[in-house]
Amino acid sequence: ARYLIKNACAIKLKKIKKYEQQFLALKEAQESAENFTSELDQVKMTLKQTEEEKNRLEEELTRVKNILKKEITKADTEINRDQTIIKEYKQICQRLDAEQASMRAVIKLLKNTLGECARCRSFIETPLLSNDVLSQSGDTSDSVTEENKLSKRITELEIELAQTKLALVESECRNQDLGHRLGVKFSELQASKNTLPPWLQKTLTSIKEVTTNKTNDQQRMIVGRRDSAPNTQSFDL
Asked: What totals of helices (H) and strands (E) does the chain contain, helices first?
């Protein structure tokens, strides 16, 4: 005990202050290290959550891409089908116009030929060529039969044309619904845009622009074909 007291008394006061400063510095360094360790753990946890969110968004993006690709393929198929139907209708209308013109020429020639006979002329001038009189008398001419066939075919074409217009409207509605759903999806992805890396943000923006342009092109194409569809009033005999 005496030895310790003697050594303690021998230590200079400056050294005691120096040791005190070193101790305080060491203690502060330990506290800073603990704070840094805690912050590092928080950063690691945040990074892990960000990676999980990134993976989830990438999966969502892949799913949206697949849905978009499927819907665009379906819309292209329907548009091609509608194009084929409209093309066939135009061909049918042209053929009907040609047949109608040919039939009128035959009827005109028949009337001119029968007009040379006085007895036949009086028969032509009477309303005996109406369908009701012909059905009552049992005398059905070839020209009236052909006109009836044409009228029946025109009626069928009008029904099919109405069905085609309805299909075009349904296709347009589906395209609008697709655009709305994709807009909602992109809005959801845009809400979490701050957590995405720059390359993923650029990809999302590119997909949104392509989708908008594709939908607008399809709508303009459908409206153009609908306006160019043949009018049923041109089929009247």
From this structure: 6, 0
Could you report the per-residue pLDDT of 155-182, keeping only the tens digit for each?
A: 777 777 777 777 777 777 776 777 677 6
Among residues 104, 232, 69, 110, the alpha carbon closest in space to that of 165 is found at 232
Q: How far apart are the first and last CA of the chain?
A: 135
Alpha carbons within 13 A on the beta-carbon side of 4:
1
67 touches 146 (CB < 8 A): no
Q: Which long-range contacts (CB under 8 A, 24 or more apart) does 188-192 make?
A: 189/57, 189/60, 189/61, 189/64, 192/53, 192/57
Residue-wise pLDDT for 182-203, tens only, equals 666 666 666 665 555 565 566 6
DSSP letters of 71-91? HHHHHHHHHHHHHHHHHHHHH
pTM: 0.35
Spans of all domains in the chain: 150-182
3-class DSSP state for residue 130?
A: coil
Q: What distance in Å separates the CA atoms of residue 182 and residue 174, rounded to the nearest whole number?
A: 12
More confident residue, 163 or 129: 163
Structural contact between residues 150 and 100, judged by C-beta atoms closer than 8 angstroms: yes
Other Cβ atoms closer than 10 A to 234:
10
